[in-house]
Amino acid sequence: MDQTAYAYVLLKQWRWPRTKIKHLLAMGVSLKSAIQHATSSKSYWHMARTPAMQHALNNDWLKAQGLPSIKNLWCKAQGYS
């Protein structure tokens, strides 16, 4: 699952603006960005691709969640080290 798809799933789980703000703040997003992001009327898919979500769900965080790197899987399948 790529970063955008994972962000989409998280936004659907969080659902309410107050919950989105709380989780984004816990992931290191600024208060202003978290509020703007959480109160937007755009769809989950559009909001999953915003800078706030990209900052919150960086590669280190995804790795800590146990998700495999698509780049590493592709390199392994192609025979690169």
Written account of the structure:
There is one protein chain. With 81 residues, this protein is mainly alpha-helical. It has one domain (3-78). Helix content is 68%, strand content 0%. It is built from seven helices and no strands. Helix 2 packs antiparallel against helix 3 (31-38). It is elongated, with a radius of gyration of 14 Å. It starts with a helix and ends with a helix.
Entry keywords:
81 residues, mainly alpha, 7 helices, elongated
Topology summary:
Blueprint: H1 3-14, H2 17-26, H3 31-38, H4 44-47, H5 51-56, H6 59-64, H7 70-78
Helix pairs in contact: 2-3
The Cα radius of gyration reads 14 Å
Q: What sort of overall outline do the alpha carbons produce when their principal axes are compared? A: elongated
Main beta-sheet strand count, sense and barrel state: none
- What is the succession of H and E elements? HHHHHHH
Number of helices: 7
> Strand-residue fraction?
under 5%
Termini Cα gap: 22 Å
- Mean pLDDT across the residues is 87
The SS-based structural class is: mainly alpha
Low-confidence stretches: none
Give the helix proportion (percent range).
55-70%
Q: What is the total number of structural domains?
A: 1
